[in-house]
Amino acid sequence: KVTVTFKHAGDAPILKRSTFKLSASTTIAMTADQLRKQLGIAPHEPLLLYCSTAFAPPLDETLGDVAQCF
Amino acid sequence: MEGQMEAAEARELAWAGCIPAVFSLAQDEVTTLEPPPCYHANLPRQSWLPLVTGEVVEHFLPFAPPMARASSMWMQCRGEPLRWQVPVGVLFDLLTSGDDQPGNGDMLPWQLTVRFQARPTDQLRGSVDDAKALVRSALKESAFLRCGSAQPVMDLSPLDDARIFEALCSASPIEAGSPAPAPSSGGSPPPLPPPSCLPPASPVSSQAAAGQAASQQTPAGKQGQPSASDAPASSPYEVYCQARTPLEASLLRSLGSRGERAVPTRAFVAQREWRQLPVAPLLPSGDPTTLADALALLLPRAFAAASDAESSGGEGQRPTAIVQGVVVELNTPVSWLYEACSHPDGFLYVVCLMPQSQRTRG
Q1: Structural domains of chain A sorted by starting position, each given as residue range(s) with its CATH number in brackets
Q2: Contact assignment for A61 to B276 by CB distance below 8 Å
Q3: Closest of B23, B32, B82 to residue B62, by C-alpha
Q4: What is the CATH number of domain B262-355?
Q5: Contact yes or no for B137 and A52 at CB 8 A
Q6: Looking at CA atoms only, how far is residue A61 from chain B in angstroms?
Q7: Where does the record place Pro residues bias (chain B) (predicted)?
Q8: Which residues of B touch A59 (CB under 8 A)?
Q9: Of A7, B68, B104, B256, which is least packed with CB atoms within 10 Å of its CB?
Q10: What are the residue ranges of CATH 3.10.20.90 in chain B?
Q11: Is the model's pTM score more than 0.90?
Q12: Which value does ipTM take for this structure?
């Protein structure tokens, strides 16, 4: 399990709960899909996820690898 | 080190690597009486498909269904969709390598099918801007791995940023747009110049073999046609180096007296099976980390199985590592390999071919 904390930036909606525990094998794309459901963002609307406010990790990278790298 | 090629020399060779490719429009998407001629191009190993296939789109779009758009183009290799997010050379090595050998000679020219419809839902659109965003993000990611900050990449000047993509977008088409016999039954494609790939099965650490073999091959794409612009013609490698130098200097300033935190490495087993973990440049003992150490970290199951087989007297069970189209000996220092063979996004891509015994997974 990986503990992930989300911070909103720009005009992104604010999450009711910002910290989640997700499986290490979850990909960034799956995480984005879950966030869309939480925030009510339609599939055609853009949602950008940045790691350490620096870069966007590849969508098929797993959370476990991202956590170990950064 | 004796017998080891200089990293700069190997890096220049890697940049000269090109893959002759033949693009053809999928037959079920041809809407004209005459099918379009195939499009031949020399694809640079270091780049990404959306950055070097703009002319392919322009060539086939007039023959495609009426609702087709440039942004909807995607490609297949032997029926398998290509992930444009993976560098060209890595894609080729992944899709065309045989049991334990890179498939450079047998699979040339690389036959690719262009489609404009029915893109798989998990296949993202790949425009030039999307590819540039991916490369920029990967540059920041690799800088973060090396020095703990993406600031050196954020401090890149617009000129250096433009130079990086000028180098990546420089493809060397073989008589761009030249018609070829339509891919009908019994037809054979016209002969192509010798492939401009790194010599196969030549470990990078073998100075004599790699140096001599590479010098015998003339990169068809590197010499190419003279530039029509007023600026003096520079090779993509030279243009890239102009941008890379200030970036490296900025990275070194961020590091200060500390050594690099990690060597940005990505190990691919298939297009969608890859790992990225921080690979330390030195082992706890102080010895340089070898490629075997790095792959044991990135692909523990494959290398654990290989070690078990070797300890029980088995042979030939270790996965084969291919970097820039060349089989690399597993005792190669990963820091040297990174300096010599990393891609422009700052990552070292290693393609791992599993032995036959490990191909079938439960």
Answers
A1: 2-68 (3.10.20.90)
A2: yes
A3: B32
A4: 3.10.20.90
A5: no
A6: 8
A7: 188-202
A8: 124
A9: B256
A10: 262-355
A11: no
A12: 0.83
